[in-house]
Design a protein that fits this description.
The strands form 4 sheets. A 5-stranded antiparallel β-sheet has the order 2-17-14-11-12, with no helix packed on it. The chain has a 5-stranded mixed β-sheet with strand order 4-9-6-7-10, with no helix packed on it. It has 2 domains: 59 residues; 171 residues, no CATH class. The chain has 1 helix and 18 strands. The chain starts with a helix and ends with a strand. The chain is of the alpha+beta class. The longest helix is centred in the first third of the chain and has 56 residues.
């Protein structure tokens, strides 16, 4: 073989050797990475599993922003027949009023704004804790925590009240928008109704009897648990 041919052959052999060395290094690196991959996968799976466990275990129960009860009395469809009350505990958001809604009683710890429309969008009338107000069935209401505002252009009704109202009261009497609710809890015997009484609501655990006289002696109207009725100021009520 001539000298130039030998030189070309030597160059080719050297190139093959270099390529082989580089290929072995690349394949070896892939093999090492593949062997380490299961450990990495295990680490990722364990981390996600731990995070999922923490999310499920640590999720706290939501705390209501407004505490207490809103009670809505609807007008009687049959005379001298109590009607079922609409009671909402810890109200949140915009709540549609029943079609025959007549009086709303606020025993929450926040102002309740009543609107004439079903979506809490128009001018509202704000009822402070411990008071009530007349409402219409086409409307809605929203309880707003103190410090977060009281709706759009709310007109205040009732005196300013600090702290929660008597949300635990079981028998309440509404007279008018400017008079605090009369609450009876606990009670026994014959109870005289306020002179300007308008609506009585029974959210206790016993039926009660309403009388037209002030000493519980005449024929009575029975109001079951979760019901309400119109009453008159000359009357009274008792559990027996």
């Amino acid at each position: 073989m001539s000298m130039p041919g030998r030189r070309v052959l030597a160059v080719l052999v050297a190139a093959v050797l270099v390529a082989a060395i580089l290929t072995e290094g690349f394949v070896g690196g892939l093999s090492s990475a593949a062997k380490a991959q299961p450990a990495a996968d295990f680490g990722i799976s364990f981390g996600l599993g731990s995070l999922a466990g923490i999310n499920v275990a640590a999720a706290p129960a939501p705390v209501p922003l407004v505490k207490g009860r809103v009670t809505v009395f609807s007008i009687e469809t049959v005379p001298l027949t109590p009607t079922r009350l609409d009671v909402t505990e810890n109200p949140s958001g915009c709540i549609k009023l029943p079609l025959l809604a007549h009086v709303l009683v606020n025993t929450t710890d926040a102002p309740v704004t009543v609107y004439p429309d079903p979506g809490c969008l128009t001018l509202g009338l704000t009822i402070t804790p411990g008071f009530g107000g007349h409402v219409i069935g086409s409307g809605s209401y929203r309880a707003t925590p103190v410090g977060l505002g009281v709706g759009v252009g709310g007109l205040n009704v009732g005196a300013s009240v600090t702290g929660p109202a008597s949300g635990g009261s079981r028998v309440g009497v509404f007279t008018d928008e400017f008079t605090p609710l009369t609450n009876f809890d606990p009670v026994s015997g014959c109870n005289k109704l306020p002179l300007t009484s308008h609506v009585l609501v029974n959210t206790g655990n016993l039926p009660l009897h309403v009388f037209a006289d002030p000493i519980c002696t005449t024929v009575s109207l029975t109001i079951g648990v979760g019901y309400g009725s119109h009453v008159i100021g000359t009357g009274s009520w008792s559990y027996s």
